[in-house]
Amino acid sequence: MDSSDIKVIRTTYPKIITKDQLYRICYISKKTAYYLLESGLIPNENTGKKTRKYRIRLDDVIKFLQDREANSAAYK
Questions:
Q1: How many other CB atoms are there within 10 angstroms of residue 67's CB atom?
Q2: In Å, how far from its chain's centre is CA 30?
Q3: Per mean pLDDT, which range of 47-51, 62-66, 71-75 is the poorest?
Q4: Mean pLDDT of 13-24
Q5: CB–CB of 60/43 below 8 Å?
Q6: pTM score, whole prediction
């Protein structure tokens, strides 16, 4: 993931995103996004609501993407 990809993500999405935006950024399924959030692999704030339950910092998602690229075997 190079700096141009990061720049596109930062300009396209707000600083705080939802699970729906997370799975689109990371190219993963909704179920995988749920697992990553519940297990704590991606730090988030659980609002306790039924909809829009997670508030995720975009910086944490970018860190996750960089780590996933560097250590791809750990995420399989």
A1: 14
A2: 11
A3: 71-75
A4: 95
A5: yes
A6: 0.89
* DSSP category for residue 74: G
Q: Which of 54, 53, 34, 52 minimizes the C-alpha distance to 44? A: 54
Which residues fall within 8 angstroms of residue 46, CB to CB, at 6 or more apart?
53, 54
Residue from 67, 44, 38, 47 nearest 57 by CA: 44
Predicted confidence (pLDDT) at residue 39 exceeds the cutoff of 90: yes
Spatial neighbors of 50 by CB under 8 A, at least 6 apart, are: none
**Stretch 14-21: mean pLDDT, rounded?**
95
Tokens of 28: 């993963």
Residues 42, 6: contact at Cβ < 8 Å? no
Both tokens assigned to 65: 């993407």
Q: Where are the beta strands (DSSP E) in 1-76?
A: 16-17, 45-46, 54-57
Amino acid at 58: L
